[in-house]
Amino acid sequence: MSRTDEEPKIIPRHIAIIMDGNGRWAKERGLPRTEGHRVGADSVRAVVEECSQLGVEFLTLYAFSSENWKRPKREVTALMSLLERFLKTKTPEMMEQNVRLQAIGRLHDLPPSCQDQLHRSIATTSQNTGLTLILALSYGAREEIIDGVKSLLDSVEKGHLDKAMIDNDIFAKHLYTRYYPDPDLLIRTSGELRISNFLLWQISYTEFYVTEKLWPDFRKAELRDAVHEYGRRQRRFGGV
């Protein structure tokens, strides 16, 4: 039995993934970039299923960054269409798998039809008690921190919070991720060694796993490899 077939002994409570390499995958095959994004959506489905099976509680996927709006308009339009279609077609599957959908980011920047479908999918799955799938959409960590500071200032100005009370825990409650634990494991595909403005506050003690696999080729076996590697790490959180 291979390592991938073995049941991991230690399961991270929260996995975050930077899904990179869709465009490169398509280019290597002489296909349009949109085809890479389409096949990448199948990887999302596979990873969600595997996380559910392993007992992972939270899965955060970096689906569309605040910087991605700078891409060619045609590609952005195609991505928004793919997102809307993904939500519409996968919501019944999420119901079957007991997956609860959530989203973080400046969601008001999404096209109205995407926002409507996202809110419908979130509402439909809101009572599910299995894996919580968090989509980071129009998300940037620096923007999140700025929005958190504004929220803190607003609370202080309204008299709801004394500035002397502000500490790490208080600040974290003003971030998009205030309802979720910090990630235990961050996976980045395509071999790139950078964070790309993703969860900068939350990953202070997160274990990193980088794979050369492009996102459309990242499926259940690759996720298990990452979880097995995580299980071999010793997390000290600054201690001995």
Question: Can you describe this structure?
Answer:
This protein has helices at residues 22-28, 33-54, 73-96, 112-124, 141-157, 168-172, 220-231; strands at residues 14-18, 58-65, 100-104, 132-139, 185-188, 207-210. By secondary structure, the chain is an alpha/beta fold. The protein has one domain (14-141, 182-231): Undecaprenyl pyrophosphate synthetase, CATH 3.40.1180. Helix 4 links the parallel strand 3 and strand 4 (132-139). The longest helix has 24 residues, at 73-96. The two termini are 35 Å apart.
Keywords, separated by commas or semicolons:
240 residues; alpha/beta; Undecaprenyl pyrophosphate synthetase; 6-stranded parallel beta sheet; 7 helices; 14% strand
How do the helices and strands line up, and which of them pair or pack?
Layout: E1 14-18, H1 22-28, H2 33-54, E2 58-65, H3 73-96, E3 100-104, H4 112-124, E4 132-139, H5 141-157, H6 168-172, E5 185-188, E6 207-210, H7 220-231
Parallel strand pairs: 1-2, 1-5, 2-4, 3-4, 5-6
Helix pairs in contact: 1-2, 2-3, 3-4
